[in-house]
Amino acid sequence: MSEAPAIEVRRVSKSFGHVAALRDASLRAPKATVTCLLGDNGAGKSTLIKLLSGVFPPDEGAVLVGGREVSFRSPRHALDSGVSTVFQDLATIPLMSIVRNFFLGREPTRGAGLRLVDWGRAETITRDALAEMGISLRDASQPVGTLSGGERQSLAIARALHFGASVLILDEPTSALGVREAANALRHVQRVRDQGLAVILITHNVAHAHAVGDNFVVLDRGAVVAEREREEVTSQELQELMAGGGAMEELLKPVP
To answer: For the segment 236-250, what is each residue's pLDDT rounded down to a tens digit?
Structure first.
């Protein structure tokens, strides 16, 4: 009997008023695998992320973690279940220090009575976690807004790893990064996968997806229109699937 996926959605649907954002969509994300969720703007990617991360429940269908059906009550509930989501805005507070952003309410404490925050230990943990991501901090008390986009991405991933995530969902992690930082972010994706986590990478950048992905799921207008494994699809074929079959050939035809 095969092992249950780290996280799975089965035939989920979600509507907002008369707009069907998801229609009977399914996705499986096994451990130690990068599952890429692809689709153009309005395909339903953001809605599916929010179902997986506990922002709201599906109208129909089921979400399963480790083979067990769950009903997330909130993003905190999803996080406590091992599902960590790094959104495009990276969920960081620019004017707050790096170490405070790393913990965000889960700081280590000392003392049986008052339970004071152990800032020395918190800074050591932050420095060590970021060092593993290739970032050497000059000052962990500096505002997180002084970090580059790639460094903040690394901070968010390091935070998820430290707090025991088994599933890491990355929402367009390379969209606002330059070429070098994007390449570094993709190396982090591979590293996380090699540590045994299930990674769901949401992107519309086919080249980035094909560089690190093991499985690919293509959404179009809320429905899954294609599922492929890495060895059975090329980057060009993925682009065509996202564009809707022959649409890409039409776009590339020379203008008469």
So the answer is: 999 888 887 444 444
Q: What is the spatial distance between Cα 3 and Cα 17, in angstroms, rounded to a whole number? A: 38
Mean pLDDT is lowest, of 14-28, 135-149, 181-195, for 135-149
Spell out the residues 6+ positions from residue 120 whose beta carbon is closer than 8 angstroms to its own: none
DSSP letters for 26-83: EEEE-TTEEEEEE--TTSSHHHHHHHHTTSS--SEEEEEETTEEE--SSHHHHHHTTE
Is residue 223, in this structure, part of any structural domain at all? yes
Total tally of structural domains belonging to the chain? 1
In a domain, 239, yes or no: yes
Taking all residues of the chain, what is their mean pLDDT, rounded to a whole number?
A: 88
| CATH number of the domain residue 54 falls in | 3.40.50.300
Residue 145 belongs to some domain of the structure: no
Q: Is the pLDDT of residue 178 over 80?
A: yes
Does any domain span residue 149? no
The dihedral formed by the CA atoms of 175, 164, 3 and 13, expressed in degrees to the nearest 10: -50
> Angle 66-205-131 (CA atoms, 0-180°, nearest 5)?
65
Its domain, for residue 219, covers 7-83+185-252
- 């050939």: which residue's tokens? 249
Q: Which residues contact 73 (CB under 8 A, 6 or more apart)?
A: 54
Q: Evaluate whether 171 touches 86 at the Cβ level (below 8 Å).
A: yes
Per residue in 63-107, pLDDT (tens digit) is: 999 999 999 999 999 999 999 998 876 667 889 999 999 998 888
**pLDDT per residue as tens digits for the range 207-225:** 999 999 999 999 999 999 9
